Amino acid sequence: MLNYDCNMKVRKGFKYRLELIGFQRKLMCTFSGHHRAVWLSKDRLEWTVPIIWYHELNWNMSNFWNKFEEMNGLNAAPSQCCQQTLKQFDRAMLDCFDKNQANKRVPRFKKKNIKKSFTFPQGMSLENDRIKPPKLDRVKCRKSCELKGKLKSATMTRNGKYGYVSLVLY
Fold first, then answer.
1. Has residue 16 been placed in a domain?
2. Which 3 state secondary structure label does DSSP give 44?
3. Max Cα-Cα span within the chain
């Protein structure tokens, strides 16, 4: 006889198209550029320096990166998105050295204009047919079904002239 855990949380994903206006499109491009800049930050993917893990990178981001001109633009980006990018990079580095995963490789440089996306791990709010991410005004989205549950994270992606949001609920 199988024993099922009734307290298990089920995560559900939804994807909606956003109706962006001019300055929101520009901000989405800027935030995705910051995502790419954090991933490619100084000397991270070179083998000449020791590997820097998430906690060191997070400390560097909050203390030193604001003092360099090339990283000064990151102040405009939501800090949660930058920290989420650092966590994704840390996970990619841990996976590439895991001997149990045979086909993993070292993370690569992110090319420009390939995937314009960034993730908000928290801080999003839903109001009727509008979504409110941090540092962006309310964005209208085309909801095809009603959402039930608590919002866990949201990934905003821009593909051509349209923007999309992928919501994870539990």
1. yes
2. coil
3. 63
- The radius of gyration of the chain's CA atoms, rounded to the nearest angstrom, is 18
Q: Which domain holds residue 76?
A: 12-169
Please indicate, yes or no, whether the overall pTM of this predicted structure exceeds 0.85: no
Count structural domains, the chain: 1
60 in any annotated domain: yes
Print pLDDT tens along the chain (170 aa). Answer: 556 556 667 778 889 999 888 888 888 888 888 878 777 765 555 556 667 777 777 777 766 666 666 666 777 778 788 888 888 888 887 887 777 877 777 777 666 766 788 888 888 888 888 888 888 888 888 888 888 888 889 999 988 778 899 999 88
Classify residue 6: in a domain, yes or no: no
